[in-house]
Amino acid sequence: MRRAARAVSAAALATALAAVASPSAAHAARPAEASGTSAPSAAAERSAPRVERVSVAADGTEANGASGAATVTKDGGHVAFSSAATNLTPDTHPRPQSSAHIRDQDSREVSRIRESLTAPSISDDGRFATYLDWGSHTTNAYVMDLTTGEKRRVDAKGFKEGSGESEISADGRHVAYVLRPQHPADPYRIEVYDWATDTREVVSDGPPDAARDMVNPSISDTGRFVAYEDAGTQQVWVRDRDTGSLRRVDDGTASELVEISGDGRTVVLNSANGAYVRDLRSGKVRHFSGTSAKAVGPDGRHLLYSDDASTLRLRDLRTGRVHVVGTGSAVPGAVGAKGRTVVYTSAETDVVPGDTNGVSDVFIRHTR
User: Fold this and answer.
1) What is the value of pTM for the model shown?
2) In sequence order, what are the residues at sequence separation of 6 or more whose Cβ sits closer than 8 angstroms to the Cβ of residue 358?
3) CA distances in angstroms from 220 to 52, 189, 192, 198, 203, listed in the order given
């Protein structure tokens, strides 16, 4: 989820999902102030620092199931998340335990993608989404055009082949995913699907044995750079799809890839010694001992991390300024442009007034 290609209205999004999910109820109109003046618009309200709950129905009804794994588009206009709730939209279609939801922050509309097993990764205009669903034999990654309802299986391989994690580029054209070959002796590999050309490209290098699976892909805004992890050696690599070059980016210790920034310049990783950030252009590496990185902003400037059990903090890597976001968990894609929005999951009941559902919810913090 990175830079927006073009905006999609809430009405268009709701209409598009009608083929695969019932549109959510129209959000309740905000009452005027006692003085008789009009209530502030959603855009105006978003300009002030504050925290709001995202995993609620359009009319503000609390979710009756847990929500999490939230990501936010660059402009903060759409939040994608997974929820086991059955009351965020009026859609009564049978659903798996948890399914993909998308909230338009301006209209408050919530839409659901049916037959989704995971939280979606969405393009920054809110038009395209990728997620996992059951295929004919195992799980497969799919990509959907939410304006038309067109759905494609990303890996498009044999009957028994499946796919794992998938992430979409900000422009919505490319999906990086883990291909799980049919034969158990064949290792997992990272591929990229191109929506425009309906083609697939292998981007990972690996040995010919299943002990060295390639996993955890992260893709830049335009799809040019793809970072991934070697599960066997715990090395992290970045492929430049324009030049074909492959670069190792870990610091020589066992590492876990967190995310590559939208501009493809910054890679964030975790190791036994804490989080570290590598600038791929300058080669500079910054270590943050005792911390665990969760996400990085699209321009690589803001790092979301925790340095204790569950307190999330946002660090401006240029100024060193740190803001406490909240108590909870977060995933890659949780930071919007310039660090202005951060989404996270929390079971705390005092984040916002009136939280009485007793389950984890998704929140968005507007830092300014």
Assistant:
1) 0.84
2) 349
3) 28, 18, 12, 19, 14
